[in-house]
Specification:
Chain lengths: 244, 124
Amino acid sequence: MQEQTETDQIRLELARTLVAHLEAGENEDADRVIGELAEIKENELFTEVGRLTRELHEAINGFLLDSRVSEMTQVDIPDAKERLNYVISMTEQSADRTLTAVEESLPMVEALDKQAGELLAEWDKFRSRLLTKDDFRGLSDELAAFLQQTQHHSNSLHDNLSNVLMAQDFQDLTGQIIRKVIDLVHDVEEKLVKLVRITGGKLESSKKVDDPTVLEGPVVPGVEQGDVVANQDDVDDLLSSLGF
Amino acid sequence: MKILIVDDFSTMRRIIKNLLRDLGFTNTQEADDGITALPMLQSGNFDFLVSDWNMPGMTGIDLLRAVRADAKLAGLPVLMVTAESKREQIIEAAQAGVNGYVVKPFTAGTLEEKISKIFERVEG
C-alpha cells in the first residue's frame, strides 16, 4: 500500500511536470516525461510477469517432485499393462476350456439322442407285439449296450460340466485385477487434472469428437461412443431403410 | 457349402464354427485376419464368408472391398459379425456390399436368421 501511494505520488508529480512543459511549449521535455511515465507502467508489468513465471516454475517442479507421479509412470502403469494382459490370457483360457468341454459333450448328447430314438422305435414295436423272439434278443442286447454307454457318457458329461464350472474362476480374479487398474486410472486422472490447472488451462467439458474412422469396439453402457445402434433390431432397421 | 470364418480371436472363431455346425454347415475353415483370408478365398472355392471387422493386419471392411473388387469373388455372400455398432460403419459396410450385419454379442438365433436370409436372397 505504502509502495502504491509512492508510485501514485511520483506519477502525479510527473503529470504536473508534463502539463507544465506542454503549456510552456517545451516539447522535448514533455516527451521525456511521457517516457518516464511509461517506464513506471512497464516496470509493474515486468514484476508481475516475473512473479507468475516463478509461481509456474515452482508449481511444475512441485508436480514433478510428487513421488506418486514418478511411481505411477515407472511402476504402476507398466504393472497395469501386465495385469490387463494377464486378464486377456485368463479370459481366453477360460473360454478355451469351456469351448473344449462343450465341443466334446455335444457329440455325446447327439449320439445318445440318436440311439435312444432308434431303441424307442424298437421298443414300441415290442409293446405292440411286433417283435419275434430273435428280434427281442437283439433289442435286449442293444438296450444293455445303450445303458452302459449312457452311464459312460454321463460320467464324461459330468466331468465336462465340472470343467465348465471351474473355468468360471477367472471372473473373481480378473474382477480384482481390473478393479486395481480402475483405481490407478482414477489416480492418473486426478494428477492430470492438477497438471491442467497448473498450466492455466480451463477444464471445459469438451465433447468427444466423433471420428468415423476410429473403430470403437463393443458398445459399453454409460460411455459416450457417438452414434451407435442399441441392438440387432436397430441394425436390421437401419439396413432395411437402406433397401436391404 | 464351404464357409470361411475370419476373426482375430480364436475363441470367437470356435463359437461361430460350433454354431454353424449346429446349423448343419460342417465344412468350415478359419483365418485370423484379412491378409490370411484373401489368398484362401482366391484359391479355396468358398461359398460363404463370415468376417469380423476390427482385426490387425487387414480389417474386415478392407477384406470385403477386396472381395468385391476381385472378379472371381465379387459374388461371394459376406456376413459381417462384429462389435462395431456405429451407424456410419453399418452404412459403410452396406455401401461396400455386405450381405448381412450381425452385432456382437449375438445369439445363435440371430446368426441362423441372417444366414438363411442371405441364402434366400442369393438363391432367389
